[in-house]
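The methods section describes the discrete structure representation at length, but only in general terms. An entry of this sort, consisting of the sequence and the corresponding backbone structure tokens, reads as follows.
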Amino acid sequence: MFNDFHYLYQAIVVTLFVATIALLALERLERHVVAAIAIAVLLLTQAISLDDFLHFVDWDVIGLILCMSVYSVILEVSGFGKWIAYRAVARVKNPLLLLYVVILLSGVVSLVLENTITVFVFAPIAFEIASILGVSAKEVLIGIALTAGMAGSATMVGDPPAIIVAGHYNLAFTDFFVYKSRPSMFFIVTIPMLIATALYVLQNYIHREKRDVNTARMDEGSVDKWFVLEASLFLFLKIALLSLRKELGIPLTLSAIVALAGLYITRVTVHRDIECIKKSLKEGLDYKLPLFLVAIFLLSNSLKKHGVTDSIANLMMERMGENILALGVAIFIISTVLSAFIENIPVTLTLLPIVDSIAVKIGVDPLILAWGTLSGLTAGGGYTYIGSGANVVAMHILDNKNIKTGFADFIKTALSFNIANTVMVIVLYTSIWLR
């Protein structure tokens, strides 16, 4: 009887997962409606319990993203994006090079800042640069999301999967640069990112009409520099709190709340600026993004709960024997495919125990395969907008600007980046760790 129900629930969650992806791809319903349907079906069929609902969702992450959504509005109102754009334009005159620098810069920032936060920070910059150059803000922001998502695994503090791997294997910060005298994740990630970003810019802009940077539009005097300074200082405070949150024992959301509260108090007491607060709360507190993220967490963890991801991974592993090259490539492929459609935290937690058991069986350091897991998660997350938190946030911001981007449209826009990125990542991983 247990097995009957076990397989029944496997069929339910797999069918629901596929149906959700199909509905998103067909674009007949808005994302938050699809998310609500998925959540309702999971609960009504008892594929997840109310206790699962509470524990499967990382509410701290949801809270952080909500706070950053509010803060991103403040950054936009302050002129933060305009100021950064003007600084960049003043130093880089070539349009293609300017786009490359701005998009790549988000990846650099994401080395130390969680990728969803990086997208929020860079969103106003993306819109301003797009306006100055007369190009599509959609492609600029998607590029920013791709590099931010890619760079997250280059260090142990950039993204949750990297943090999970670091904790699981008790790694030091420097192990992500060099481990046992070999280059590790930093180089496996950043070298492809440099090249893939260049190809992305060329794919989306090289065939378009050449246009010089429109410096005539620029009026840096229109930017409230004090407001930009205050917004930047409290943003850096939030980053500092996030960096030290383990030592301080504080949740993610609290870091953002402290920054928001500090800025709000400053705007009210010093500048008597109530309108900024009203605007940021009105535009930033949108239920659609949190609802969608809750559904992704629940779907991902329901697949894990009912053994679907374990079954897929184990089946592939059983066919590889003890060949370290074949096993490493298989781990990479599994991670890449799963992370394109499933939130990367449950994929990481599912695959690491499998990596450990394989490593014991064939007598190798589990990090050899764990780097493959992390590399695949990083490379695969950019293929769809549900594979990476950075992509989800970018789509949310574009929706708020009434810039509609479909499921297939995202895949097409990001394709050159992802193909180049995946090929280079697997070449570097196999040549460094599987030889």
In short: Residues 163 and 224 are 37 Å apart (CA to CA). DSSP finds 21 helices and two strands in the chain. Residues 407-433 form the longest helix (27 residues). The two ends are 47 Å apart (CA to CA).
